[in-house]
Amino acid sequence: PHVPAKTLSPLNLLSIFSCVLTWAIFAVSLYNKDAIACLALIAISLVSTIVGYASLWSPQLMKRTSATKVPKGDVVIRTREGAFVVVKCEEAVARELYSGTEECTYLVHSVRMYRTLIGVATFILMVAVVLLGNCNFNQQAAIGSAYIVLNGLYWAASLVPKKEFWDLGLYDTEDITPDDCRDADRAREGGEPDDFPSFTRSMWYAIRETGEVEWVQKSGAAPQTEKWGKWLGKAKEVVKERKPGWKAWKAVGEKDAVFAEGEVEEEDVVMPAEVGEGVLNGDTM
Asked: What DSSP string runs through 164-227?
């Protein structure tokens, strides 16, 4: 499997713009009869081409070689903010995008060839710097300004979301989030504990959609304590029995009830009066 870059990805567009800009400056150099500037542009272009060729790579996704039937490859992702993302997919997709190792396939496989190309590019770059120092000021300003603009654009491209770079058309995606799970980071109408956004409520939504609680224990999503274990046991019972209205189970309220079990309220303790002191009608004697 191979995930190619989008045809109109930001980097491809910048490459086209860079090529057009280079040809424009080259044409101006020819018009001004500045042969040194033309040679400098050719040298700089060769450097970019050689380095790009030596470093060209593409992501290589993991592929299952066995035809044995395997269970579903549903994946639960927990973010640093405490949100849960449940991805329902086949095992092959989960292996390619989530559980498989990340590998890159380089166009130049030989390390020696790669180092040779980088060395040649470095030498040509030094020649280009010398040539740029000997062309007229107008061409120096034009070439310098062009590369300043290109550096700024490449920096701006790094801020673009990664989804704009890669073509994932090989995969069909559909948002199947239930309506009551949407906007889980916002409060709902009502004053009950389950109406407010919380880690427990989000985790219950994920448990409800997966129908399992084992992943919570294995991943450490919930603390390994007796009361959390009791709450997970109740959640497992709810998702397994699937009684009418089970999806509306008050997970947060049930968790609060479990945690409140066995708590002893503090009682007011009357300290005995010291010798020589007494209390009479609220006045100290």
From this structure: GTB--TTS-------GGGTTTTS--SSSSGGGS--HHHHHHHHHHHHT-SHHHHHHT-S--SHH
Q: What b-and-e string marks burial along 253-278, b requiring 16 or more CB atoms within 10 Å of the CB?
A: ebbeebeeeeeeeeeeeeeeeeeeee
**Prediction pTM value:** 0.63
Q: How many beta carbons lie within 10 A of that of residue 150, not counting itself?
A: 15
Percent of the chain residues past pLDDT 70, beyond the cut: 86
| pLDDT at residue 258 in the model | 87
60: buried, middle or exposed (CB in 10 Å: 19+, 13-18, 0-12)? Answer: middle
Q: Is the pLDDT of residue 36 over 80?
A: yes
pLDDT per position as a tens digit, 52-66: 999 988 777 766 666
CA-atom Rg of the chain in angstroms: 33
